[in-house]
Amino acid sequence: MVYAPVQPDQSLPPMRINLFSDTQTRPSAAMKDAMMRAELGDEQNGDDPTVNALCDRMAALLGKPAAMFLPSGTMCNQISILVHCRPGDEILAHQDAHIVANEGGGPGALAGAVVLGLQGARGMFEAATLTAALREKRRHAPTQTLVAVEQTSNAGGGSVWPLALLTEVLCLAHDEGMQTHMDGARLMNAAVAAGVPASEMARHCDSVWLDFTKGMGAPLGATLCGSEAFIDQAWRWKQRLGGSLRQAGLCAAACLYALDHNIDRLAEDHANARDLASGLARVPGLAVEQPETNLVFFDSSATGLTAETLARLARRQGVSVSTVGAYRLRACTHLDVDAAGVTLATAVIAQAVRSPKA
Ligand SMILES: *Cc1c(COP(=O)(O)O)cnc(C)c1O
């Protein structure tokens, strides 16, 4: 079975409101200007001043001694796992985590690590669940080396780990002699929604990263942070995997622009997500999960329409949402969608449910 990306359908009308993902934002004119003005050098040699500035900013923002620029969030996760784990080691993470479901089996394929998937509501798990999953340290059992959390949890509904739970789980991991990793693809959404500094959320993490291609609106790039020793080892893997770059300051400049301009405004995305959720909740047959950040998950079972059918009907009217299950859909707000767009998208989806044949 070969994974086939969805082919663009030429018969579809132009996209009006793209709620498919916050990854589909386009760099703004001002962001592109910042990219064009960036001072550049050879990143691989540590000579790109813009990348270095971004790494300094990110280390400070996430409260870690060192940082590294990488092309993608997936590479941040996989390099972290490669540094933390040896072949045969076990990672404890939520069963719906991105590293489990969306990275092509990377932990097994690259680090030779296995993931033990933990259960819990909204993509999070309790300290008691972690305790119950701990193995006796004996020759027969895999060595449990890493606990990984996602902030926000994507499949969990864009949910935010409360600081107290996060601290409890991560400190338990440390008490048990394990390392801790945070997939912070949407960490700034969590920080803005909870009003808690990202550095507080990352305090007990040995590795943590932020994606600039989600709500931050940059075209490319993520930043991995940790101790000097961790980043030193991570550089070996960056080099080995071909993630060492050249004039990457071109992209780092977009990330710096995003740090200056696109963090506080995440609150608008969250407000738009709440409005979208309450609008969709008024559509008979749709069951909507209350959003905590910019992701709105809803269930179409009671409408009689599958997620795919409903998404197709909406797309025919220029509104794009993604399907994440037979009857589960996801709509994602971001900086290219405003309140008027949310109103229009809600109306289009309501109309599709009301008269699917039209
Ligand atoms: C998008 C995402 C990733 C992967 O990031 P890429 O930059 O697309 O490689 C990892 N984890 C979570 C939770 C994500 O949402």
Quick recap:
The chain has 14 helices and 13 strands. The protein is α/β, with parallel strands linked by helices and 358 residues long. Pyridoxal-5'-phosphate binds at residues 72-74, 77, 98, 150, 154, 183, 185, 211, 213, 222.
Describe the structure.
- Helix 2 runs parallel beside helix 11 and helix 12 (266-281) runs parallel beside helix 14.
- The protein is of the alpha/beta class and 358 residues long.
- It folds into 2 domains: 17-26 and 265-354, Aspartate Aminotransferase, domain 1 (Alpha-Beta Complex); 38-261, Type I PLP-dependent aspartate aminotransferase-like (Major domain) (Aspartate Aminotransferase, domain 2, 3-Layer(aba) Sandwich), CATH 3.40.640.
- The protein is built from 14 helices and 13 strands.
- Strand 9 and strand 10 form a beta hairpin.
- The protein has a 7-stranded mixed beta sheet with strand order 2-8-7-6-5-3-4, sandwiched between helices.
- Helix content is 40%, strand content 16%.
- Pyridoxal-5'-phosphate (PLP) binds at residues 72-74, 77, 98, 150, 154, 183, 185, 211, 213, 222.
Chart the SSEs and their pairings.
Blueprint (H helix, E strand, L loop, with lengths): L16 E2 L10 H8 L12 H14 L3 E5 L2 H12 L5 E5 L3 H4 L4 H6 L2 E5 L8 H7 L10 E7 L12 H13 L3 E6 L2 H8 L3 H4 L5 E5 L10 E5 L1 H13 L8 H13 L4 H16 L5 E2 L6 E5 L7 H10 L2 E2 L1 E2 L4 E5 L6 H16 L4
Parallel strand pairs: 1-11, 3-4, 3-5, 5-6, 6-7
Antiparallel strand pairs: 2-8, 7-8, 9-10, 10-13, 12-13
The structure holds pyridoxal-5'-phosphate (PLP).
